[in-house]
Write a structure and sequence with these properties.
By secondary structure, the chain is of the alpha/beta class. It is built from 17 helices and ten strands. It has two domains: 158 residues, no CATH class; 176 residues, TIM Barrel. Helix content is 47%, strand content 11%. The radius of gyration is 20 Å and the shape is globular.
Length: 364
């Protein structure tokens, strides 16, 4: 089979057509990225190139404020365009102040999303365009709804709004939807993107953080309108939610979601093989490699064998799977385990080292 470029590989996999190898897209803890950069002797922003990951994606929503702005020392922080105050605590930024935590209903109704900063947010996509047409390019407008209003209001107040103050919840969800739709429409019209990435973390380790009925009544109608933007442009639409969300997968399929991430198989109802058997004819999956035990604590052979089994079960009907971990790959993961995971997907160590050397030559 001819060696596909990244765009061809991902598109073929999503269409359940034959691919030369399963597409790969990994998320790493920041310290893991630093370790990989040192091991491969490449800059941190070129690690994905050396490893051979197939997807490039940029945040244009509030996830940029959380993950895209990096501080050197704990205690340093910033106030983002939404008025959320963040502080570096360990490797990640955490929220220190929720701007609408104690807001009145009138203040909530008057709150305005940062439309005046939309050009700068959308401009994050420009950095990926220089790589040419062979890369599969995603645009991430998440968090879209529930998680976005949690960042503005706080989890406790948001839960109370959904349960006992539906008018406030609806006001906030409408505003969040409008801004997500605006970002999605503008990105789809302006950039040659290959999928639209949406999502909110609505799953916990044992169950959803709200009832499925609440999600269907309060969240789903707004999400459907965001999804419709990508579908209207003929694009696949991906949805991210950690945790146990088995109950709403049929709803996601019905509204047009094409790809589900990250498949935390240790959560009830989320076993990767069972999901593939039940929904694999209608939905593609991305994720499933365990980051709690397998990657950090398993042997190299354990990782290779488990990854190979996962790929086999997720592609048994011909595709519809992107190899990824169930969460950010933690820094205690041995380097050999990361390489074993890639080798199981068809990217041997030698190919990775050759690409790393090519990166170094290009930067010399």
């Amino acid at each position: 089979m001819r060696r596909m470029n990244s765009k061809e590989r991902v598109k073929a996999a999503l269409a359940r057509e034959a691919v030369d190898r399963v597409p790969i897209w990994m998320w790493y803890h920041p310290e893991t990225v630093r370790g990989l950069a040192a091991f491969l002797e490449v800059p941190e922003d070129r690690v994905a190139d050396a490893l051979g990951d197939d997807i490039r994606q940029r945040w244009v929503g509030n996830n940029y404020a959380m993950e895209g702005i990096v501080h050197e020392r704990d205690g340093e922080g910033h106030v983002d365009d939404w008025g959320i105050e963040w502080v570096k605590d360990g490797p990640f930024n955490q929220i220190r102040r929720y701007p609408l935590a104690e807001a009145s209903e009138a203040e909530i109704a008057a709150y305005v999303y940062p439309y005046e900063r939309a050009e700068a947010l959308l401009g994050q996509m420009e950095a990926e365009l220089a790589e040419g047409d062979a890369r599969f390019l995603g645009c991430d407008v998440s968090p879209c709804l529930f998680e976005m209003i949690c960042r503005l209001r706080g989890m406790e107040e948001t839960a109370l709004d959904l349960a006992a103050r539906p008018r406030i919840a609806e006001t906030m969800l409408q505003a969040a939807e409008r801004f997500s739709v605006y970002l999605a429409e503008t990105a789809c019209e302006r950039y040659p993107i290959d999928w639209l990435w949406t999502g909110d973390d609505v799953g916990g380790q044992e169950a959803m953080v709200m009832s499925p009925r609440c999600w269907r009544e309060m969240i789903a109608p707004h999400l459907a309108r965001i999804v419709a933007v990508g579908k209207g442009q003929g694009l696949p639409v991906a949805y991210h939610s950690c945790g146990a969300i088995r109950a709403i997968i049929p709803d996601l399929i019905a509204m047009g979601i094409d790809v589900l991430n990250p498949i935390q198989s240790n959560c009830p109802g989320m076993a990767a093989g069972e999901l593939a058997r039940e929904f694999g004819s209608e939905l593609a999956f991305m994720g499933g490699v365990d980051t709690h035990e397998l990657l950090p604590r398993g042997s190299r052979a354990d990782v290779y064998d488990a990854t190979r089994r996962l790929i086999d079960v997720m592609t048994q009907h011909g595709g519809g799977y992107i190899l990824a971990a169930s969460h950010a790959v933690p820094p205690e993961t041995p380097m050999e385990n990361i390489l074993a995971m890639y080798e199981a997907a068809g990217e041997p160590r030698e190919a990775i080292m050759d690409r790393a050397a090519a990166v170094r030559r290009a930067l010399a």
